[in-house]
Amino acid sequence: MNNNQTLKTKRQYYHQILIAAGEAAYKDAIVSSRFDVDSTTQLDEWQLDELIQDAKNRLAGQKRPVPAADDTSKIKTWRNRCLLVLAQRGITATPKDWSAINHELAKKQYQWIMPSQLEKGFVNQKGLYAFSTVDDLKKLFNQLSAIRDNEKIRAKKERDLAMKN
């Protein structure tokens, strides 16, 4: 990996940590106050490493999990798998309209997957993006697959019963 790719990867990782810490809106202020530059694109590798370490420390102080650099690709993969199962069930989304998927995932049967939110009485209003860890997405995928399979079995039984009558 050349230096530009390394810097790009580190900038992306720093941004992911800021999002996880809820500090993405303050990125410009953090970078400009620390290194007197306008953007992270003007930083070199050791400055990015320093920002990443500081952001990780702040995130650890908040008791939130630090996203691993390779977790984003795993998360994308599991989200895609969940979307494929939902599409097989006839629940689809367009790039501008996710309401069908958001409505489906707001149902009570999916709330057990995220116990921290369930304890607080929150209902999933973010749809698929509320499931932000690989483990949560795996649980969701397994549940969606089971529902899909049960719907197929039920439909087959109904067809067979209709054929007999």
Protein described:
The chain has helices at 3-21, 27-35, 45-61, 71-88, 99-105, 115-120, 134-164. It has 165 residues and is an all-alpha fold. The chain folds into two domains: 3-61, no CATH class; 71-164, no CATH class.
Number of strands: 0
Helix/strand-derived class? mainly alpha
Share of helical residues: 55-70%
- Profile the largest sheet: none
| Helix and strand element order | HHHHHHH
Supply Rg. 21 Å
Low-confidence stretches: none
Termini, distance in Å?
A: 66 Å
**β-sheet strand percentage:** under 5%
How would you describe the oligomerization state of the chains in this entry?
A: single chain
Number of domains: 2
Instruction: Count helical runs.
Output: 7
The global form is elongated
* Mean pLDDT across all amino acids: 81
From the structure above, extract its key features.
165 residues; mainly alpha; 2 domains
Quick take:
The chain is mostly helical and 165 residues long. It is 65% helix and 0% strand.
List the helices and strands and how they pair.
Layout: H1 3-21, H2 27-35, H3 45-61, H4 71-88, H5 99-105, H6 115-120, H7 134-164
Helix pairs in contact: 1-3, 4-7
